[in-house]
Amino acid sequence: MNEPILRIEALRKSFGALVVTDDVSVDIEPGELHAIIGPNGAGKTTLIHQLSGSLKSDAGTVTFRGRDITGLGMVERVRLGLARSFQITSILDGFTVLENAAMAVQARSGSSFRFFRQASGETALNEQAMAALAKVGLDDRAHRRAGSLSHGEKRQLEIAIALATNAGMLLLDEPLAGTGREESAVLVDLMASLKSTHTIVLIEHDMEAVFSLADRVSVLVYGRLIATGRPEEVRNDPDVRAAYLGEEAA
Q: What whole-number distance in Å separates Cα of residue 219 and Cα of residue 5?
């Protein structure tokens, strides 16, 4: 059996008396799409913050590719190949689509953002950025201002930015949030295609998308994992149905 690419052990985060993630432990296998689901307020986004390094945990460990990264911040984790998208789009609207992706390539190399304007003409930088845009279907939008994209296209660009860091593992926080049916279909197809090349941790409320994409599903309720398994196992778990899925899983 392969060693997990990401091992989460007894991860915990509290804000005052409120325990948001409570001894969360789960292994993410190489090449899988692992969905984390649960009701609003379950601690899902806090967990992603802890995994990405944007939020320091109170206890527990995170191991990535055999290395303890618990004490590392987001920048260091990105450089090791662990990148994320955000629940709320975080692109730079005033820059072009290509410039947004190119800055991610530049950040990966350790360059300062203040040198971006001078670096924007570098062929290698732009080639790598264009390759990331092509993977998400935005290469024909490269020279448009990012702020002019539709909401769904901005979600695609966020994923391209994560890919441009040369990530081997993607943490996707509700990529379908706020998208229409057609935009959601494009993003679901994109995530399906990325499964062949990347390990993905997906937080998502769209259960149809989750159960069509995920290799395994973990259910987080009140900060604790109550189940992990194959989609059908989780769908039919009586505790999961009682706590979260209810009759929607029928």
A: 20
CB 175 within 8 A of CB 204: yes
- Measured in degrees and rounded to the nearest 5, phi and psi for residue 158 equal -60, -40
- Which is nearest to 65 in space by CA: 85, 45, 80? 80
CATH 3.40.50.300 segments of the chain: 1-81+167-250
- Considering the segment(s) 1-81+167-250 as one domain, its CATH architecture is 3-Layer(aba) Sandwich (3.40)
The closest alpha carbon to 139, from 83, 101, 187, belongs to 101
pLDDT digits (tens, 9 = 90+) for 58-80: 999 999 999 999 999 998 999 89
**Per-residue model confidence as pLDDT tens digits over 37-63:** 999 889 999 999 999 999 999 999 999
List % helix, strand, coil for the chain (3-state, nearest 5).
45, 25, 35
Beta strand pairing call for 33-37 and 216-221? parallel
CA 120 to centroid of chain Cα atoms: 26
Helix (H) or strand (E) holding 37: strand 33-37
Q: What is the pLDDT of residue 70?
A: 97
Long-range CB contacts (within 8 A, 24+) of 225-234: 225/24, 225/25, 225/26, 228/26
